[in-house]
């Protein structure tokens, strides 16, 4: 059964019970003390996710998190989760009768900070600005898109950029970060998140064509000031 969310480390988890404070490209989440405590019994590493078999309040359950190291026999904590039934992991070639998608596991019972620059990644990634790439036909740049985003909202935009980060196969989409050298690190208007069905790799120079969405909220901690959805990427 195909998972239909708009994201895990999109959608409910990633989803509920949080007061989201939106600030440019980083979203801080004020959440109650972590409510769930688990003891890890088994760990399976896949391409993008870590699958954890754990015991919580005497009940054994499977949990999926963005890929990270998890130790068998260790205690971890988490907040909200989304249960999916009959979830098929194509990576593992296995169907889980019940599995809980969790944004992150922590080793301490305390809230944290979520970063919308990197969906499905529990650690903040500092994306470094790339060298300038000539815009398509001398047109739109990423910095220009941010500065005039209201004018482009809901419209199809096209720009040229370099792929700097890739997360494939998350909630039926590939999540790409692109940069074109415009903008600056302090203003955080240099990096653009794109969802697509196309496959690319880090370092590819691509032309991005897709619809611009503003203030897209996929759930707890995943709020995008600017995002290009269902884009076509051509090299």
Automatic annotation (TrEMBL):
Protein name, entry field: NrfJ
Organism: hydrothermal vent metagenome
